[in-house]
Amino acid sequence: MSVAPGWYVDPADPQTRRYWDGEGWLGAPIPVDATPPEGPPPPEPEPEPEPAPKPVTPASGPAAGPPTSGPPPGYQPPANWQQGPTPGQPAAGPGYGPPPGWPYPTWPGRPPEPRPHGLPLASFGARLAARLIDLGIVFALIVVVTRWFVVRLVDETSAPINEFVRRIQEQDRTSEPLPAAGNQTGSLIVVILLIATLLWLAYEVPAMAANGQTFGKRLVGIKAVPVEADTPLGFGRALRRWNTLGLPTLLWYCCGLGLLLQLIDAISPLFDHPLRQALHDKRAQTVVVKVPRTPVDRANPPGDAP
């Protein structure tokens, strides 16, 4: 049995009436106490589409010209407009940044090198020269301290070495294995490497902790300083800095692995930009700079007016 068309109380909302056309509800509801109209409700008008926004074009003078990507001819920037913040500082406050439509300013060409704490960065050549001087001093100390152990090591390895040299000189192609080295060969190598590592630590870490300079760095005129402030490194930072470069000495026994790690660390400043930090610098958050000869070197960097 179908329900005849007419206005009925909406079961979903008893406070309203809606028109039933025999198959479904039609039109919008009306209050339940309102007098319904004769017949079905009028059809609802379709919503009109919103007009598209008009493009805004900049005006130049009394007549509007075509839009441009930059400032209009003859435009002068405001008096309080600045070129932008200095490198390394965030833009803050009004007045920074270009006017609307102007491209953001960039460095013309190669940007200037950073000057940590007003000091120029040390060149790779200066760092290499200082490191070679320091290694020469450490090697001399190692020769003096480990002389007895080296003599014992030569005695332990003399049999296989002498036999190897004899076979080369006499062109002996025998397949017999070389004589075995002495039983203490491995222990002597470990002791020598351990003493060498400790001597390097004693030479470099206290000097770097006090003023950031070893004897080699003092001769070349460079020093290591923390990235955040021009202050002494301190023992903890100096030890972290040395660990990355000095501790691999103990791995020389492993087919020269320690020497390979130290070589990678030594040449790493060539590939680091912009602070030219070696791997041990990054570990300790330090940077190597030139030592100013006079206070003027710090106050007036190159390019500044005297």
Automatic annotation (TrEMBL):
GO cellular component: plasma membrane
UniProt keyword list: Cell membrane, Membrane, Transmembrane, Transmembrane helix
Keyword Chloroplast among UniProt keywords: no
Membrane topology category: Multi-pass membrane protein
Transmembrane portions of the chain: 132-150, 185-203, 250-271
Transmembrane recorded as keyword: yes
InterPro entries in the record: DUF2510, Pra-immunoreactive, RDD
One Pfam family cited in the UniProt record for this chain: RDD
Annotated DUF2510 domain residues: 5-37
Region of interest (Disordered), ranges: 1-111
Primary localization: membrane
Top-level taxon of origin: Bacteria
All copies of domain RDD, residue ranges: 121-284
Biased composition (Low complexity): 77-93
Pro residues compositional bias, start-end: 37-56, 64-76, 96-111
Localization per Swiss-Prot or TrEMBL: Cell membrane
The name this protein goes by in its record: RDD family protein
Species this protein is from: Micromonospora zingiberis
